[in-house]
Amino acid sequence: MMLEVSALRAQVAHLEEEKINLEEQLGLTFKERYHPLVRHLFSTCIQLKARLDEYPRQMRRDISVIVNRARGEGVDKIIKLKKRYGCTKDNDGLALTQLKKEEVHELKLENSRLTALLCKLKALRCWRKVVDQEKLHRQLLQTKQREVTARTEALRVKMLSEDKVALLQGELDFAQQVLTCSQAECSSIKKQLSRKTEELQVFRHRSAREARSRQELDAHRVQTLEQMRADMEDRDRQLRALGEQLDRGSRINKLQRERSAKEIRQVRGQLQQQCSLKQEAFQQLDKLQNDVEAALPRGASTAGQSRTYCTLSVSRLSTRSPSTGLHRNRLHSALQPGSLTNYTTPQDFATEPRQQRAETARGLSNMSTLDDKRLFVTAFGE
Asked: CA-CA distance, 71 to 103, in Å (whole number)?
């Protein structure tokens, strides 16, 4: 109990010292934070004072410049007036006075510039002094902070060392207790060691037997692996043979597809050729129809030629569409030379009975294709 009370009193003392160190560190921190602002304010005041001192000198310099300019203008005007009225007396004196005044003015300006430079040098010296003081003060604050930090660190190390001493003392007591226990256990362990030695010998004999059995198993496994490797090689050869057969079959199929595509292109070309021939035949038929219609009003000399054209057209149409064979054969028989003996001239054809024309119109309406209608109109006309 007394040890605990003394330890608590030591902790209270350490905490009080740590509190004092923290207060000092906070004070230094505030000083370090606000001191640059004060220094900056002081340097700003110095600069403002230098500017205020410069203002009267600048004003006097400006007034001197204005007065000198006015004096020069006045002298020039006086000289001009004297020249105008013919009086040139004392012009040299005025000019000499003006030159001296200008020299005096230049000297005053130089004096003013030198004075301003001296003021600037004073302000610079004050500013440098302030900067140096600020650096020294900052270094002093940093030194104090390092001192406080070192003091705090020393206090912390002292507390840690005391804690470690107490901890080591406790560990020492615990080690003594463990030592007594370990000595008691040592005797029992020696007894167990002799028993374990016997068990170890038994285990060694058993492990030797297991090693021999494991070697036998390894030899059997090696033989099995070699046999499996041979089987895998045989299967690889079979797979390569099957792959070659598949490649050969794919090439044959490719050749067959190319041959079929070539035949299809040939058939398409033939179909296109037939379609073009049919289109040409229809065009020729239309041309023949137009020629026959143009030749009918001319006379009997062109009627035979029209019948010949119509016969050719009927024969072509019969080869294209066998479904209209009845009408085309009928029309073809009508176009034969012996069937038109009574209509050899356009005048005879014009005197055809109305009943026969009506029957002809009904036959025209019963025709199944447009080609028959065209042929009939070409042959007989209205």
From this structure: 13
Query: How far is residue 19's CA from residue 25's CA, in Å, rounded to a whole number?
Result: 10
pLDDT band at 298 (very low <50, low <70, confident <90, very high): low
pLDDT in tens, 69-113: 887 787 777 777 777 776 666 666 767 777 787 787 788 778 878
> H/E element holding 361?
helix 354-366
Phi, psi of 86 (to 5 degrees): 80, 15
Tokens of 280: 């040409």
What is the radius of gyration, based on Cα positions, of the chain?
A: 69
Contacts of 95 (CB under 8 A, 6+ apart): 75, 79
Distance (Å, whole) CA 51 – CA 67: 24
What pLDDT does 372 receive? 46
The domain ranges of the chain are 2-179, 299-380
Q: Which residue from 66, 67, 54, 68 is spatially nearest to 117, judged by alpha carbons? A: 54
pTM beyond 0.70, yes or no: no
CB atoms within 10 A of CB 191: 9
| Residue (of 153, 148, 144) closest to 32 by Cα position | 144
Gap between the Cα atoms of 296 and 305, Å rounded? 10
- Long-range Cβ pairs for the range 371-374 (8 Å, 24+): 371/285, 371/317, 371/320, 371/321, 371/324, 372/317, 372/324, 372/327, 372/328, 372/331, 374/285, 374/286, 374/289
What is the per-residue burial (b if ≥16 Cβ within 10 Å, else e) of 124-157?
eebeeebeeebeebeeebeebbeebeebbeebee
Greater pLDDT, 192 or 50: 192
> Residues 222-245: pLDDT tens digits?
888 888 888 888 888 888 888 888
pLDDT digits (tens, 9 = 90+) for 126-142: 778 877 887 887 788 78
Task: Quickly name the fold that domain 2-179 has.
Answer: Helix Hairpins (1.10.287)
Return the exposure string of 251-274: e unless at least 16 CB atoms fall within 10 Å of the residue's CB, then b: eeeeeeeeeeeeeeeeeeeeeeee
